[in-house]
Design a protein that fits this description.
Elements: H1 14-17, H2 21-47, H3 49-54, H4 57-88, H5 101-108, H6 110-124, H7 140-159, H8 165-176, H9 190-201
Length: 205
Amino acid sequence: MPPNNAETHHLRSPSRSAPDPETAQRRLALLTNWQIGAVATTIVVTGLLPFAIAWRVSYLIAVAASIILAAILAVSTHVARRRRLATMALSPKLVHLPDLDSERKRLQSARTRRMLAAGLRRTADPVQPFRRLDPCPVLVDRVVAVRPELLELADDLEQTQAPDPACVAVLRELLTNGSSPLYNPNVPADDLQTTLARARAGLIT
């Protein structure tokens, strides 16, 4: 599971960084409206394409450019909304919002739990394979100190049928965010212990 280096900040406590539920819901609704509007615009402009072909070349170019721009906006808002959902899922006070229902189910699914458990075991492996193109290798000294905890979390994650989705999101962020304490030496090592302890609290078999 390759780390995501798109985020430049390190893993922060959701209680300190998350907005209140009302604000979070409003921001998410705004992204949803933008996404729906972009998709609708793409469909409408695409419907004009046959007429543009029958008219002038300049109309065809304008309509084609509009379709491309609307499609880019639709994809961008979709990606932004997915990232916002992933971030909101880290906070216990936001994870139960109605709009996060699909994200909760995804985090609690057997597929997600197996995938994250496999990632935890790969991270805990004492023999870390060399990957020439890996932009962000794990900090081996930190992994050595928490190897038993990583393996225990992997087992609990597979066995727990309905884990706390916020804790599962924390594990996903830990494994995939290149700024997490597993990969970033500038983040205090104690943050790794804190993150694992929080995740363990939500995985009660």
